C-alpha cells in the first residue's frame, strides 16, 4: 500500500473511530503512529515526530492566551459578571427574538479583538454563555451552536494568528492583513445576528428562550451593574489597540482585573480560587491536547503526500481565475474536515501562491477568503475543533457532541454565505488596505 493510500485510509478509519466514541485526540495520535509506522517501517520515527509535534505545536507564546483568557472567563463567571451581562442583554434585547444569542455574537466579536484565536473564545463563552442561555430557556443545541459558531470571529477580526501566518507565507504586510479582516469581521457578525433573527422567526422552537412574560427594557439601576463589565472590556481592548500590551499580556491583565472584581464583590475565597485554577488547568490541557494531536496528524498526512497530491492535481489543471478560486476554496473546505487551520495554510498556500500570482489575483483578498474557508472547518465534523472545545468546556451531560455540531451547522452555512459575498465583492476585503 502506497503512502498516499495509507493517508486516504486513515481518513476513513478516523471517521469510524470517532463515530464509535473514541476521543478525537486519541484517534488522531493512534492513526498517526500507525500510519507513520506503515509508511516508514519504524515505530520510533512516529514517536520522534510525536515528540516534535508536542513541542512545536504549542511552543509559541501566543498560546498563552488560552489559559489566561480561560482563567479570565472563569473569574468573570465567579464574580457574577457573566450573569450580569446576560441579564442585561436579555432585558435589553427582550423584544428581539433570540436576543441573548445575538448578545453572545457581539460579545464573541469583542472578545475576538483581544485573543486572535478561536479556541480561546470557544472555551471561555462555553463556560459563560451556555449556562446563562440554558437558564433563560434557550434550546441547548442553539446555545452551544451560537458559541461555537461565533467563536470563529477570533481568527478573522484582528489581531488574528491565522492572519499573521498567512502574511508570512504569502509575503504580505501583517498590518494590511489585519486591516483586511475588519470589514469582513463586521459583515460576518451582522450575518450571524441576521441569521439568528431569521431562525427565530421561521423556526422559533430551534431557538427557544422567548416564552417569558417578564417586562423587558433596561432600568437606571442597571448602570451600576454595567460599570465593571465596561471597565474590564475597555481595559483589555483599550490596552491592545492602544499599544500598551500584546494579546497574551491582555489575557493576564484581564484575568487580574476579573480577580480584583471577584474579590471586591466578595465572591471568591482561597478555596474557590484554587478550584478556578484547577478548572483552568483542566480546560487548557484538553484544548492543547487537541492542538498537539491535530498537528501530529497533519504531519502524518503531509508525510503521506495525500494533501500535496490533491493540491498538485488542481494546480496542473488549466483554469481561469474563477475556476482556480472555486477549486481552491473547495479544497480548503474539504481539508477543513480533516486537519487543523494552521496546517491547511501551511500545506496549501505555498503550493497555490505561484498560481495565484500568475493569474494576477490580489493576495490580500485571497487571504481573507482563505481564512474564512479554513474557519468553516472548525464547525464541521469529524474534525471541527471548535465543536470539541465547546463540548469539553460545557459541564452538562445532556449536551452531546452531536448537539454541538447540529447547533453549529446553521452558523457554518452563514459563514459560507459571507464567503460568497466577499468573493463577489472583493472591495470588502481591500477597501481599508488600498
Automatic annotation (TrEMBL):
Segments forming domain TRAP C4-dicarboxylate transport system permease DctM subunit: 12-428
Domain of life: Bacteria
Compartments it resides in: Cell inner membrane
Membrane-topology annotation of the record: Multi-pass membrane protein
Classification via Pfam families: DctM
Record keywords, A-Z: Cell inner membrane, Cell membrane, Membrane, Transmembrane, Transmembrane helix, Transport
Ranges annotated as spanning the membrane: 6-39, 60-82, 102-130, 142-169, 181-202, 223-244, 273-298, 319-352, 364-390, 402-429
Family indicated by similarity: Belongs to the TRAP transporter large permease family.
Role this protein plays: Part of the tripartite ATP-independent periplasmic (TRAP) transport system.
SUBUNIT field: The complex comprises the extracytoplasmic solute receptor protein and the two transmembrane proteins.
Protein's UniProt name: TRAP transporter large permease protein
Organism expressing this protein natively: Marinibaculum pumilum
